[in-house]
Amino acid sequence: MMRTGFVGGSIIRWRRSVLQKTSMDNRAMIATGAAVGIAAVITARALTGAGSQFEPPLLDKREHQVAFGYVEDENRGENPMNPPIFREDPYFWVRDDARKNKEVIKHLEKENAFTDFKMKPLKKYTESLYKELLSHVQETDSTVPYKHGPYEYYTKTLEGSSYKIHCRREIGSEKEEIILDENVLAKGKKHCDVGAVEVSPSHQLLAYAVDSTGYETYEVLIVNIGTGKVVDQALTETAGRLTWGRDDKHLYYSTFDQAHRVDKVWRHSLLDTKNNDILLFEEEDELFSAGFQKTRSERFMFIGSQSSETSEGYMIDLTKENTEAELIAKREKGVLYDVNEYRGKLYIITNKEDAKNFKLMSTSVDQPGPENWKEVMPYDKDIKLDLLSSFKDFAVLYGRQGGFTQMWIVRGDDDALTRVEFEEKAYTVAPGVNEEFETTNYRFSYSSLTTPMQTIEINVDSGERKVLKEQPVPNFERSSYESDRIEVTAEDGTKVPMSLVYKKGLLNGSDPKPCYLYGYGSYEISIDPFFNSKLLPFLDRDVVVAIAHIRGGGEMGRMHYENAKYLKKKNTFTDFIACAEELVAKKITTPDRLVIEGRSAGGLLIGAVINMRPDLFHAAHAGVPFVDVMNTMSGRSTVPMNFRLRLSCISGLSLHLSNSHPQLVHIWSC
């Protein structure tokens, strides 16, 4: 069964879940880049060498003025320029949020046809590469079953199938029960993305959310697991997150506003035939997004809202009939906090009182206000705290130290912390699926650049660990590869880490090697060192793979992010350039053998660096790049989203492809 959202019961953890999802998307980005990047130079040569009888389609230019600054009846932030200034955008007419403009669709079809024509010389190569990538994937596989009530739940995949199958079996039995087959659900649909999949407290009902449009708007179906009959499908436009209450009567969900911002949290009653759902919370400020999470003890539902700099939370006692939410701490600009329940108290991770990397505090349930918060542990500027996952007799604290994810076990009346140690120099740890509240065992995932994802269970009493499963990777021998972590001195003297992975012994010689350098550097999202089988075709061809942990990300803590925001955004770009220069200085590679990639906000990075230093790179892949910053931020329907984008993008940035370095190949993909 797929778990979505949070692992603990955190009040603002929906933002963390978004970041975790984005981080997972970045893993997919790197994976995609592995296939794209490895063929980048060959692709580039094909694009420049293919025949000219098929000309690229060109868009018509149509006059349109875009306003920067004050616009009547639009929220343009505090103190917008008045009068505004205007910029001509001859391609404004192409924007089609409804995806129904026939003229635009026809142009896209022509672009696809042109791409197919240009890529035709590479068809055999790409098919061969695809087979090679597939050779490292065990298609028929299953996750480690986890205990939840009287059952063990898990998901599996079958060779030739595109989607997961959600299963369970009674504890002590080997008889499998399929509760949801996404492959069946996807039949006849052009798009199928399953969001939350949640079993009810009685284990008799299953609620799941599915997006059939690609717009990330989810319909919710509730089925009787025993009969397969749909018992409720009243919810049609949700954000895809679901949580049951203490019983099968109530289901909690959230919805979007017109700008696709999560702004409302609701309680749905399965017994109410009139569908009079109760609105529990509404966030009107366009800078904030709403979310919700039930504690593992099932006592509280935390509801609240957060921007990138400020948060506010409420709690509802689920043991009472009252649905009124009690305020925990009123929003205060610049103050973030994240709340969980542990041993009958509220535990808060917050940056209150200038704790840049956050500290752990607590208070009683009856006195949730910030004036009652007490420090659980002294603030340590070298440790960034992120998440507390709580159980009946212990809790697990996640954060970062020394540039890596770390986890600590919290035990005893004095809340003593014990860090879980690992042997490898560079690694990534993350919460696993842990449904049981009363337990002494805790599951988490572990991975490194040379270690496939492991599911590990630790006994918090004895400290004993068991590797329950390591992700099978066919045609992979871990001893054939090695990884390293080096520090790069940025333009302003800041130390920026960079991770490397390559075939063992490859760097023993003095000859420069081809190199693939990936970067992101936005939203405090960390690109951590994890295993990715899609990088193996790189490594097996003697390519060095490097990840630049540049500022704008969160690898080195909150300040690593803060020092690449607003007018400091340029640090993201100069950090990446410094990493590339270090690879050249160490004779690991040369500019004519260096390929770079970034996607989405990382595409902004790529657009910037190839303009700043076109001499430093041979090929660049900007995937779904965010490069038209000012124009995008002035779009009426995206203004709320782009207020948040302003936190990581520099105002006034415009990108122009350099034509003074024809040896630099630009690949832009959407």
SSE map:
Layout: H1 13-38, H2 40-49, E1 65-68, E2 85-88, H3 102-119, H4 123-134, E3 141-142, E4 146-148, E5 151-157, E6 165-170, E7 177-181, H5 182-186, E8 193-199, E9 205-211, E10 219-224, E11 230-232, E12 242-244, E13 250-256, E14 262-269, E15 278-282, E16 289-294, E17 300-306, E18 311-317, E19 326-329, E20 337-342, E21 345-350, E22 359-364, E23 374-375, E24 383-390, E25 395-401, E26 404-411, E27 416-419, E28 428-431, E29 441-447, E30 454-459, E31 465-470, E32 481-489, E33 495-503, E34 515-519, H6 536-539, E35 544-548, H7 558-562, H8 570-585, E36 594-599, H9 601-612, E37 619-623, H10 629-633, H11 639-645, E38 665-669
Helix pairs in contact: 8-9
Molecular structure report:
A seven-stranded mixed beta sheet has the order 32-33-35-34-36-37-38, with helices on both faces. Strands 3, 4, 5, 6 and 7 form a five-stranded antiparallel beta sheet that branches. It is globular. Strand 29 and strand 30 form a beta hairpin. The N terminus is likely disordered. The longest helix is centred in the N-terminal third of the chain and has 26 residues. Helix content is 18%, strand content 32%. With 670 residues, the protein is an alpha+beta fold.
